[in-house]
Amino acid sequence: MNRNPIITDADKNKQMKKEALISVGLYILFFIWWFATGYGIAGTGTPATYTYVLGLPMWFFLSSVVGYVLFCVLTVIVVKFLFRDFDLGEEAGESANERSGQ
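RESULT FIELD:
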């Protein structure tokens, strides 16, 4: 059973553009998260006054550890529900003979 549907070039291009925009959007959200938590809540004063989580300053823990895990999970969810698996080499209505030039 072929799980990859054969779709038209126009549909392929539309889906690829959508997936590229979603990917860029995820990266922009990750950068905003990283910047806001890294610089927005960065400790002021001496390191002795910082709040620590697992031995790391809170701002670093949120920006680098939590952000990484959060956006890895978010990426898996986005790929599972918004991305489509399709064959890039075939177009709807194209038979095996047409593809081989016969």
